[in-house]
Structure formats: structure tokens, C-alpha cells
Amino acid sequence: MAAGASSGGPRHGGRGRSRARARRVRAHRALTALFGAAALAHLGALLAAPSAALFTKPALMPLLAAYVLARGGPRLLVVALLFGCGGDTLLQVGGDVPFLLGMGSFAAGHVCYLVLCSRHGSPGGARTRRLAAGYGAAWLVTVALLWPGLEAGLRVPVALYSLLLVTMALCATRTLPLAAAGGALFVVSDTLIATGVAGWPQAPAAQFWVMLTYIGAQLLLAEGILRSAILPDAEGAGREPGPSAHKRERQRTASRASTMPKP
To answer: In this prediction, what percent of the chain has a pLDDT beyond 70?
Structure first.
């Protein structure tokens, strides 16, 4: 009787774990659909009913954060996305002070991304140095061009924020290509915003293009960092092996050495 009970335990435990996994899969699929629907609704509102976009925009990043939680992603990634929500909401208010506060909220999110990319990315190398030169040159040129059109009180904050932004984008190149693309898109999106603040001529439906690139940036960053963090072997994530990996490699080497014929 005891043997039967003990043998049934693992089977029940296995079924329980399978059901829990199935629930998690259903949850993150549902959240993926909700985020996609919200993104489409927001982009459509920007084209057809801009006033409705005021309500759809703040919902985007919380839904993406919930998706990250459902996937078991890092809590710091959730925090980064919620800082994005704060920035989204503040930028809708209008005026210099809300703009600066919104920029500060996005900056806090970029710091979270920097920590995550440093934690889950590769150490970098010659390729990273070349990309750093490219991003640095792009930052200098962009700030120099925008500077005359910016209000005096915005010039230094915009320059410092954009430096943090390109640093985050560079750090994202040390993880999966998804995150690297997300970092680059974030630079594009915020540059579009900055040209509007500096009074440059804008393309038709300018906010649509800002939000299209921004939504893509946050989604790619979240998915890239998520896969780097919980699926380190997915898509060949170029992470430096951690201590456990080094330990396993030493064990394999020792095992091979023990089986070799002795002279």
C-alpha cells in the first residue's frame, strides 16, 4: 500500500506541473493577444481618433509587463516597462515640466535595461567598440543639429538623456539581436520626438510613426532580454558561461581524462 502511494505521488506531481505549465502558456498567449490588440487599437486611434489614443497609450506597457511576468521574466524588466508607462502618461500632459518628468521616467527605465543587458549579455569586444563609435557619432551629430531649436532649459537634459539612450542601445547589442533591434528602434523613436520638440518639420501622422517605432522597441527589448534571461541558449545568446557552466565543463574534462588510457 505504501509502495503504491509513493509511486502515485510523482505521477500526480507530474500532472500538477503539466497543468501549471499549461496555465502559464495560456496566460502568456492571452496577454500576447491583448497587447497586440491594444497596440493596434492605439495606432488606429492615432490615425482615426487621436483623442481616443489618450486612453489606449497608458495601457500598453502594463500589458507587456504582465506578459513578462507570465513568462517568468526578471522583475527588473517589469520595472523598466512600468517606467515606460510613466513616461507615456506624463508626455501626454504637455508642457516642459511634464516633459522633463516623463523623460526622467524613461531614463529610469533605460537604467533598468542597462543593468539587465549587463547581467544577461556578453562582455563585448571589437564589434562592441565599433558600434560604440557609431552610436557616439550619431549622438554628437543629432545633439548638434537639435541644439539650436531646443529651449534653453531643455538642451542639457535632452543631451544627457539621449546619451543614456544610446548607451542603453549599445548595451542591448551584447544580448540577443531582438534586444539590439529594440534598442536601435528606441533611438529612432525618441529622435522623432526630439525633432518635434526642436520645431523641425514633421511627417504626416508624426505620432503614429513615433508610437509604431516605440511599441516595436519596447516589445523587442522585452522579448530579447526575456529570452536572454530565461532561455540563455535560445537563438545562440552570446553570454559568457557562468560559474555553473564552467563547473560542468571542468567535470566533463575530468571525466574524459579519467577514461583515457594511461601510458
So the answer is: 81
Q: Answer whether 184's CB lies under 8 Å from 127's CB.
A: no
The residue range of the domain holding 119 is: 30-229
Residue 15: inside a domain, yes or no? Answer: no
Whether 198 is in a domain gets the answer yes
Whether residue 94 is contained in a domain is answered as yes
Strands (E), 189-241: none
Would the pLDDT of 16 be above 70? no
Q: What is the mean pLDDT of residues 248-255?
A: 47
**Is 82 inside any structural domain?**
yes
Of 125, 104, 211, the residue nearest 170 (C-alpha): 125
What is the C-alpha separation between 226 and 222, in angstroms, rounded? 6
pLDDT in tens, 61-105: 999 999 999 999 999 999 999 999 999 999 999 888 999 999 999
Cell (9 digits) for 106: 524613461
The number of distinct structural domains making up the chain is: 1
On the question of pLDDT at 262 being above 60, the answer is no
Burial category of 232 from C-beta neighbours within 10 Å (exposed 0-12, middle 13-18, buried 19 and up): middle
CA distance 33 to 29: 6
CB of 208 within 8 A of CB of 154? no
Nearest to 65 by CA among 53, 77, 51, 54: 77
Among 192, 171, 158, 175, which residue's Cα sits nearest to residue 235?
A: 175
Q: Please check whether residue 158 is in contact with residue 194, taking contact to mean a CB–CB distance below 8 angstroms.
A: yes
